[in-house]
Design brief:
Length: about 180
Amino acid sequence: MKGKATGKQKVYTKEKREERRRGGLKLNVSSRQIIIFLIEFMAVSVVFLCIWYYIGEFYQSIIFFFAKNILIAMGYTQLQISAVRLSHAYLVNFNLVPLFALAIATPKMSLKSRIEMLAVGTPLIFLLHVLDLVAHFPMYFYNSEIAKLVVYSIGVSNVAMPFVIWFVFFVKNFIKFVEKEKLYA
């Protein structure tokens, strides 16, 4: 019949009206929960930064080991490689700290998602650190503009990477949560 809505259409329009009333898809997170998350993130970051102060030098030596082998393969001599002094350079490569802090502080994230986030993020950030170190050599020894672009780009990427990785896993986790809510609603 013309002008009459079927049962399926009524449910669909009711759902659409309800979604419009709610303003679309929302995180359903209070200001208090956001503040608690930020405080927890900052506290965990401070703890990991203190730990990083002691283990960062070891991490930097692993980065330098891989970078050294790449540099030798690129034709740099031992003398050129040893001319770069890296004592206390580990204090620059601390962006694993926010990655671990975000993995711990994010509420309603399963342990599996946290482990996946660290399993993807840690090697990715490690590779950025190695590439950054390798790119410094042609920049300094040959004043390469391409190497300079790579170094500056990695500098920005290193700052953003933990948060980009967290965002991807947070959204993935959030979509699973919303799908589960719809399933049980």
